[in-house]
Amino acid sequence: MQALGAQAVFAGRFATLFPAVGRHVAAGAGGWHEISAVQADGCRFVCLSDVARTIRGAGQGDVLKMILMDHGTDHFTQDGFRATLDPRHLLLYRPERPFVFTSAARCGSMIFQAPIDLLPSCLRAACDRPRVLGDDDALAALVMDMMRRVARMQRMACDSRAEGARAVRLDALRDAMGNLIGTLPDLSVTGGQQVVSHGSVLHRAEAFILRHLSDPALDVGRIVAALGCSRRGLYRAFARRGETPERHILRCRLECCHHALRHPEFAHMTLERIASLHGFSSAAHFSRSFRMRYGRTPSEVRAESISRKQVDK
């Protein structure tokens, strides 16, 4: 993940892969609870499937929590603030003060927690009291999308048993978590309204590109139509990275292909199939672009990876 200015200081804390990715199932009153989590450096992302219950808490440290329902509904109360949560709403709150969650039926949620001293000052001040943001808000919808992507990557990493497949999915989890973290410096809530900067346009565009990378028809026109921004605004946002949207799409596709060529999970696939899976409609264009970026052909990268694994044995 690349970032600029103050955002780089914040996002840089999460540039390395979370070392612990695990899942456990625990018996609870009236049913079961399934929890999977990644954590590092005081931050934690949890996926929780829970039974009907009431949770009361307080004094959980000086952190910010973001809660997004995966399914079902939950009811939250803190300091006289009450909210009903469903998959269309994002809750931000500080758990050091007493709070209550109540659900009458089985539900699932995604929970992201970060130490308050790591957050941008604008977000820190905005969350002195609990807030609920709807998916009709562009940046809140982006954060929700990022949380769902982290949850998907987390489940895939937990389910991976083969070493190569797990490595691929842990890398994807790292990238997804990096994108989630990268959105927070742009999330500033004042009087219920959000300020969406060029940075948020960039993150929204990146998220859209990742979701549609396999589509050969992905282009600037589709991106601006989906985001509701101008072409000029999109190009200005990517200029902060020193690239264009087209170059970003190509780079992402090449990086995904390079990763696939080096891992046994994709060993049964032809080079053409790997290229096609990542949005290349022309094998010749893929090979030419790959060699320009990495200085070797796709076949050479795959052969070197196979030779290295045989030596390791």
From TrEMBL:
Highest taxon, organism lineage: Bacteria
Gene3D superfamilies on file: Homeodomain-like
PROSITE patterns xref list: HTH_ARAC_FAMILY_2 (PS01124)
Source lineage: Bacteria, Pseudomonadati, Pseudomonadota, Alphaproteobacteria, Acetobacterales
GO MF entries: DNA-binding transcription factor activity; sequence-specific DNA binding
Classification via InterPro entries: AraC-bd_2, AraC_XylS_family_regulators, Homeodomain-like_sf, HTH_AraC, Tscrpt_reg_AraC-type_HTH
Protein source organism: Novacetimonas maltaceti
Protein name stated in the entry: HTH araC/xylS-type domain-containing protein
Domain HTH araC/xylS-type, chain residue ranges per copy: 203-304
PANTHER family the UniProt entry points to: ARAC SUBFAMILY, HTH-TYPE TRANSCRIPTIONAL ACTIVATOR RHAS-RELATED
Keywords annotated in UniProt: DNA-binding, Transcription, Transcription regulation
